[in-house]
Write the structure tokens for this entry.
Amino acid sequence: MHWQTTRFQIDLSRPRVMGIVNVTPDSFSDGGRHASPATALRHCEQLLKDGAHILDIGGESTRPGAPPLPLEEELARVLPVVGEAVRLGAPVSVDTYKPEVMRAVLDLGADIINDVWALRRPAALDAVAAHPSCGVCLMHMHGDPQTMQTAPMTGDAVPRVLHFLEQAAQVLQAQGVDKSRIVLDPGIGFGKTPAQNFALLARQQELLAPGFPLLAGWSRKSSIGVALQGAAKASVPPGERVIGSVAAALLAVERGAAIVRVHDVRETVQALAVWQAMQAQSTVAGSA
Ligand code: 7PM
């Protein structure tokens, strides 16, 4: 299977690592170390050296309760970085839900739109549908970033996330977007309890039924923190959740995820290299 994007057909026969580049001074896990375009660009280059296959550039933190970022501020943060990042030779994804930002980055040559709102805003749907070939990641979110932590989903999240993602993909395809451009994402941490997030991992295979590649984003999230806290008997801050995050990424890939969105690219690439070495030998010798 391949992911069709603006400039690249990304081969998904092997797991792909999407490296997170925050251009947000209020980012929860890196303290805004990538606020300036030059610093963000250096981070892009480092992630590619570390083995990232895709860069995901975001200007607005979706942190629970984070104040919405004005359009002009998001454009000012993201455009200079995207304009340079598209020259690095790797697919560039942009984490945004604003149609104006989508259009501007697509004009700069961005390859993928990563929308945590799954293009539920009509103008966002239009921005992607108007482009001939950009890739798109449709993510499930329950509620909105202001309320999702105080009012998470209730009941079995898996069938509801599946239904939502199938609908979102349907709507996009009805606008003329080819299936090969679409990737789905359960939206770990977006309005779900830790139990629901881990149910989405345990039963991730159910989410593969519609036939789209799956992207999973566990990196440093609070569900990892909850699991680690249970083991450590002390709270584990985001920067110390690297090994837990790598474990979750590996489990997601083992259960069929095609792409993992991570902060810690080098560590994740190592873990996936071991998985890949095993996978290459998974057919019984002589049986094929
Ligand atoms: C709190 C919750 C703080 C989430 C920060 C985050 C995803 C994403 C983000 C994801 C896709 C973070 C996130 N998470 N896009 N954007 N999937 N497709 O950890 O899971 O960076 S923001």
The chain has one domain: 2-287. The radius of gyration is 18 Å. The chain has a mean pLDDT of 94. The first strand starts at residue 2 and ends at 4.
